[in-house]
């Protein structure tokens, strides 16, 4: 449900790379008073490929591999216990 939302949104169209049509940025409440030119420049900066690579690393970084390793170890232990109990 949406009630009385007062948000400032920056929309970037024609994003390079071909994967996305547009990107929406919801401006932080403390930064809403910044000039639109500054906000647009910051949004363009985040959309640039150089900046996206920084965030891509955090999404596909070591945390995912640690979780997968823990799951594999747990599955192995479960399999070993199952075989011993048969």
Biggest β-sheet description: 2 strands, antiparallel
Order of helices and strands: EEHHH
What's the rounded overall pLDDT mean? 76
| Lateral arrangement of strands in the main beta sheet | 1-2
Give the tally of β-strands.
2
Structural class: mainly alpha
Strand content: 5-15%
| Overall helicity | 40-55%
Residue ranges: pLDDT <50 for 5 or more in a row?
Answer: none
From the spread of the alpha carbons, the general shape counts as elongated
Radius of gyration: 22 Å
Number of H- or I-type helical stretches: 3
Q: N- to C-terminal separation?
A: 53 Å
Structure overview:
This protein has 86 residues and is mostly helical. The chain has a domain at 1-47. The protein is built from 3 helices and 2 strands, in the order ββααα. The chain has a two-stranded antiparallel sheet with strand order 1-2. The longest helix has 24 residues, at 62-85. It starts with 8 loop residues before the first strand and ends with a helix.
Features:
86 residues, elongated, 3 helices, mainly alpha
Put the structure in a nutshell.
It contains 3 helices and 2 strands.
List the helices and strands and how they pair.
Elements: E1 9-13, E2 22-26, H1 36-47, H2 49-59, H3 62-85
Antiparallel strand pairs: 1-2
